[in-house]
Amino acid sequence: MPSVIPSAALGPRAILDHYRQAMLHKSADELADLYAIDAVHEFPFLFPGMPARHQGREEIRAGYRAAWRASPAQPGRIDEIAVHESTDPEVITVEQVVTGTVTTTGAPFRLPGLLVMRVRDGEIVHVRDYMDGLAVAHAMGRLPAVTALLGQAGNSALYPFSAGWPPRWA
Fold it and tell me: Fewest CB atoms less than 10 Å from the CB: which of 50, 94, 144, 159?
């Protein structure tokens, strides 16, 4: 798929549409090209296999590329539950459910999530991505292993794609 270059005329809802298409394509390039060069993508909830945040477009690209290459999850749909407009025109809050198939087992998965997205001048500048990490682990058949690791603070096995453990909390 060719990269998507956002236009300054695109607001949060239009960028959200491109964001979802990049996720369905599992295209780190399409996704990262939506972000400002110094954007931040945070994962406030513990999510096995992901760092607490990606800082900058290229770290977002590299992080998603590594995660999606390693994951047998193939998203098939993103169902919008609600989009909440903010009093700040740059910000939307999105409730959604990603469904798809685990390609190694054929098992379906369902991943509810919440995004708080800030778009400025047609680029994502900040995302807080609240995902149900245990639902992901369950879908991948890794729930027992992940729950065993949860009590071990600082266990790098929970964050295999992170180049900089522990995460930066700035």
Answer: 144
- DSSP one-letter code for 88: S
d(CA 110, CA 125): 27
pLDDT tens-digit map of 17-66: 999 999 999 999 999 999 999 999 999 987 666 688 999 999 999 999 99
Q: What is the pTM of this model?
A: 0.81
Query: For residues 161 and 48, what is the distance between their CA atoms, to the nearest angstrom?
Result: 10
Question: Is the N-terminal amide bond of 6 cis, ω within 30° of 0?
Answer: no
Q: Which residues of 91-109 are buried (b: 16+ CB within 10 A; e: fewer)?
A: bbbbebebebbbeeeeeeb
Note the pLDDT tens digit of each residue in 79-136.
999 999 999 999 999 999 999 999 999 999 999 999 999 999 999 999 999 988 788 7
- Cα separation, 78 vs 97, whole angstroms: 6
